[in-house]
Design a protein that fits this description.
Elements lengths: L3 H39 L2 H16 L8 H17 L2 E6 L3 E3 L2 E3 L1 E7 L4 E7 L1
Antiparallel strand pairs: 1-4, 2-3, 4-5
Helix pairs in contact: 2-3
Keywords: Membrane, Transmembrane, Transmembrane helix
Length: 124
């Protein structure tokens, strides 16, 4: 009896099963990579940076604004964030504190766009 043909068929079967598992692993890694990339793309880093910049600009010119313009300026920032970025934004300043010999004011920033929630306290 010649059994060489059985070994060829058996090796072909093993290669086919190996290729199947390899394709399955590659498919799963592509899905994991895609969801990770989507998570990174959904994080609104530039929106938060722009918001922080506007808040710091508001506090830089806080003294030059009149008492009636201060609340209007805050309201404008909140409304523009909601209108353009669909993000709920709140920010407020706390009691000034002395930190390392400097008097700094804590600024609390809250950002929420339905997907990403971001809270920060900055001493400015």
């Amino acid at each position: 009896m010649n059994e060489d043909g059985q070994w060829i068929v058996l090796m072909g079967l093993l290669v086919a099963v190996g290729l199947f598992f390899l394709a399955l692993i590659i498919n799963q890694s592509a899905l994991v990579g895609q969801t990770t990339a989507e998570g990174v793309l959904e994080f609104p880093k530039n929106d938060i940076r722009d918001l922080r910049s506007e808040i710091f600009d508001h506090y830089d010119r806080y003294e030059s604004l009149g008492p009636l313009d201060r609340p209007n300026n805050v309201e404008d920032i909140v409304r523009i964030s909601l209108e353009r970025k669909n993000a709920v934004v709140y920010f407020w300043n706390g009691t000034p504190e002395e930190i390392s010999g400097r008097t700094l004011c804590p600024i609390h920033i809250h950002y929420y766009n339905g997907v990403t929630k971001y809270d920060e306290t900055v001493y400015y």
